[in-house]
Backbone:
């Protein structure tokens, strides 16, 4: 879960820095508070400087800023009552909950194996996730299908991943819960099975089930393969969610080489109604960094 | 000439509309530059082939007026026109794309063309000569790397003596140049590092490498010592480098400047709108 904790880390590092909310841009912007055109979803831990430690207050703040979704990777680790508090706060404001992490074991070969114990373990995790989803009205859970095996032909591993996902899809059938599969970049996460959008598309087409889809992490895919818009178009029928982050640096849009405004425009024009999780850090700390984060999304959303 | 332009002929279809656009251009040649004040940290060039068939003299006058320093991939007989407008040819042509240095049977022919280009380029006082790996045609990438090394070693002494840099272009093999071998920065970078000469570098084409491999800024940083020239274009489509595509060019240009790059960035996009206006906009976008 290391990759997920850097955001928390950067927020912690930012604590202690104080700054006035820059009045120049965000606050006099006409668009302030207006819902964004797309459902950009801040991390539940974001905006502590503006809205404090209570997640419900943060959700209220996010809604006031125009966000219509949030994401919480660690949702399954929270108590049932905390999950319900978050869900209620979202429901009152008609906000969506992005995919939470169901399985992201970067150190184990799992999906690539044809093994009854592994399958049982994966099914149990999905069953637990569905319980969390029922409590929180979550539609999606995220899985990273683990490491590849160095001694097994690629075709066999792919077939095993497909087979394991078919069992998982069966598990999701009744509730309609959707598992989104995330390819990660090889530089940051060497050894993982899933790396490209094309490969993930191939697997989803093979499983051929509405409960097994792709989460396209723009940051990871820019590192791995570039060609972002063509890949979005090619895999469109299987993409159910996005993660965001500019490259290099994995911070807010406008801090790197990706022209997010045009990517958002492209996604919007395709009629996308899903969530785009802001799974990245901020280029600046403290209140100022949070204000810059909102302003970055205002600018990227102005298409 | 036709052979060399052939690699670019996929634009043939659009060249008619480009010409039409140029003829009907609302930007009066020579006037656009009046309000263009550039920071000039990035020395900019343009590839003539993208911008239609209008007379080089008119095009060169316009290019000079918008702050361009070079028009590249222009044949030697036309260099005097560039010089009249104070321009250089920052990347001069040599052999073709598909039959290149990765095959020994091409070496004699390609190296002869490179040698001639080096001579003329040095005589004109220009900096770079282009070259290509050629297509794989079933060949293993390691064998191609060895063969390219052998070829360049034969000519590198001459390039050093003439103070001209040979640049091998990185192209995508996914969309525009299927089967082209020098399609990954790490492969090209390995070739540059094996040769260990300041007179052999890569032409990092930002468009081609975004199509092929992504991770533009970190790659530029990692291979800064291997890169002698850059090309631009928007992804997808190879058109304007503005807000209509997926790369944010100002950040990329800033990263290039930060590496201490002293060469040229060549605009190599196929304009969808008024070509000359788009070119001026492209120059402004890259002027960080």
Residues:
């Amino acid at each position: 879960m290391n990759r997920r904790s850097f955001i928390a880390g950067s927020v912690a590092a930012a604590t202690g820095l104080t700054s006035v909310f820059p009045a120049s841009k965000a606050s006099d912007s006409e668009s302030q508070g207006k819902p964004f055109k797309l459902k950009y979803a801040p991390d539940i831990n974001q905006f502590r400087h503006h809205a404090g430690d209570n997640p419900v207050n943060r959700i209220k703040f996010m809604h006031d800023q125009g966000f219509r979704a949030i994401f919480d990777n660690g949702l399954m680790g929270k108590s049932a009552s905390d999950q319900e508090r978050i869900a209620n706060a979202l429901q009152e404001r008609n906000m969506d909950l992005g995919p939470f992490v169901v399985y992201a074991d970067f150190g184990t070969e799992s999906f690539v194996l044809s093994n009854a114990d592994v399958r049982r373990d994966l099914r149990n995790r999905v069953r637990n996730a569905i319980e969390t989803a029922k409590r929180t009205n979550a539609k999606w859970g995220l899985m990273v299908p683990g490491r590849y095996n160095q001694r097994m032909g690629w075709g066999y591993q792919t077939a095993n991943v497909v087979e394991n996902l078919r069992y998982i899809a069966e598990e999701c059938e009744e509730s309609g819960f959707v598992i989104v599969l995330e390819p990660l970049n090889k530089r940051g996460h060497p050894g993982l099975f899933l790396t490209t959008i094309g490969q993930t598309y191939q697997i989803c087409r093979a499983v051929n089930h509405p409960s097994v889809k792709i989460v396209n992490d723009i940051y990871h895919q820019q590192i791995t393969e570039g060609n972002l818009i063509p890949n979005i178009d090619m895999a469109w029928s299987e993409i159910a969610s996005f993660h965001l982050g500019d490259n290099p640096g994995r911070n807010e849009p406008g801090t790197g080489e990706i022209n997010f405004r045009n990517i958002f425009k492209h996604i919007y024009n395709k009629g996308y109604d899903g969530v785009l999780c802001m799974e990245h850090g901020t280029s600046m700390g403290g209140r100022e960094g949070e204000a810059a984060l909102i302003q970055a999304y205002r600018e990227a959303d102005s298409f | 000439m036709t052979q060399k332009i052939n690699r670019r002929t996929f634009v043939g279809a659009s060249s008619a509309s480009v010409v039409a656009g140029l003829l009907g251009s609302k930007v009066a040649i020579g006037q656009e530059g009046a309000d263009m004040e550039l920071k000039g940290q990035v020395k900019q060039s343009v590839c003539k082939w993208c911008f239609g068939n209008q007379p080089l003299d008119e095009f060169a006058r316009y290019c000079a007026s918008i702050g361009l320093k070079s028009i590249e991939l222009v044949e030697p007989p036309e260099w005097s026109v560039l010089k009249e407008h104070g321009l250089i040819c920052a990347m001069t042509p040599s052999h073709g794309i598909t039959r290149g240095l990765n095959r020994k049977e091409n070496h004699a022919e390609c190296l002869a063309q490179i040698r001639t280009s080096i001579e003329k380029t040095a005589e004109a006082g220009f900096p770079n000569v282009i070259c290509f790996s050629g297509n794989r045609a079933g060949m293993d990438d390691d064998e191609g790397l060895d063969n390219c090394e052998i070829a360049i070693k034969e000519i590198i002494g001459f390039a050093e003596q003439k103070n001209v840099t040979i640049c091998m272009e990185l192209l995508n093999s996914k969309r525009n140049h299927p089967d082209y071998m020098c399609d990954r920065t790490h492969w090209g970078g390995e070739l540059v590092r094996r040769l260990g000469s300041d007179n052999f570098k890569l032409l990092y084409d930002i468009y081609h490498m975004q199509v092929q491999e992504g991770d533009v800024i970190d790659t530029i940083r990692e291979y800064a010592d291997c890169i002698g020239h850059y090309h631009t274009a928007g992804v997808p489509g190879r058109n304007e480098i503005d807000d209509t595509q997926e790369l944010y060019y100002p950040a990329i240009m800033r990263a290039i400047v930060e590496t201490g790059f002293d060469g040229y960035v060549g605009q190599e996009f196929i304009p969808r709108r008024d070509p000359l206006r788009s070119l001026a906009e492209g120059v402004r976008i890259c002027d960080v």
